[in-house]
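wait is this the right file?? whatever heres the structure
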């Protein structure tokens, strides 16, 4: 069984990020870069499936020079090899360009299954998995919290989160699965894995190798990046406990539109 894992490198979730001087982008200088946490669930699931069914786990990514550290971490926990499309433009590209590149890489790899995180924690676009599946013409399941692959590798059963509960879907393979927190508990790399990762291959490809054009003008233009407002409003609610509860419910529903 050949499983491809799409991995993105993102700023650490505790990073303090400010807008650039012109207010057009986020200032990422000095931040710590880590593998996208949701992609780590995807990688762990791929490793568990390999342990059960045998085969190979290959990690795919696009981005700039920094991406190699995230790929080495994936190799250290058990992935067999990695392929990266290094392009500085793709490091800042939106979901449309990234999905085009990943789909081209996947067509070349021809895996039985594609696993990725449900979203990246930097932009929270939650669009790439669906776009990749559409470009490949493959079935997909998102926000997956449980996955079973048939012994004949022809189909899979995925349990996914929906509003108010879970639903179970069956998919013919190959397919694209987007992992949600709770699918598994990602493992840590041990010293043996870290040393072995240094000898595992990371292949570099370019747009020409894949038969695609380099990213052009982004489909989405960022007009402004700003810090969240720190303004706080205090409102005192008078009356006894019952009156306060009734008034609080009204405020949350009618004024704040939260319920």
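ok assuming it is, sequence goes like this
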């Amino acid at each position: 069984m050949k499983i491809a894992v799409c991995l993105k490198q993102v700023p650490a979730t505790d990073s303090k990020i400010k807008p650039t001087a012109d207010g057009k982008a986020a200032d990422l200088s000095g931040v710590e870069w880590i593998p996208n946490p949701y992609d780590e669930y995807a990688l762990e699931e791929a490793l568990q499936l390999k342990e059960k069914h045998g085969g190979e786990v290959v990690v795919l990514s696009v981005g700039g020079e920094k991406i190699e550290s995230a790929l080495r971490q994936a190799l250290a926990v058990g992935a067999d090899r990695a392929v990266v499309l290094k392009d500085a433009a793709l490091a800042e590209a939106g979901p449309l360009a990234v999905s085009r590149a990943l789909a081209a890489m996947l067509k070349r790899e021809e895996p039985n299954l594609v696993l990725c995180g449900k979203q990246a924690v930097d932009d929270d676009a939650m669009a790439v998995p669906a776009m990749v599946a559409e470009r490949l013409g493959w079935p997909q399941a998102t926000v997956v919290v449980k996955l079973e692959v048939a012994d004949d590798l022809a189909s899979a059963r995925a349990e996914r989160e929906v509003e108010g509960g879970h639903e179970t879907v069956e998919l013919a393979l190959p397919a694209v699965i987007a992992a949600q927190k709770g699918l598994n508990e990602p493992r840590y790399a041990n010293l043996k894995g870290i040393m072995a990762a240094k000898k595992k291959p990371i292949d570099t490809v370019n747009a020409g190798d894949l038969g695609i054009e380099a990213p052009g003008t982004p489909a989405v233009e960022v007009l402004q990046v700003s810090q969240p407002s720190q303004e706080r409003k205090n409102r005192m609610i008078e009356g006894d406990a019952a009156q306060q509860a009734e008034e609080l419910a009204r405020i949350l529903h009618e004024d704040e539109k939260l319920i």
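DSSP finds eight helices and 13 strands in the chain. so i think its the right one actually
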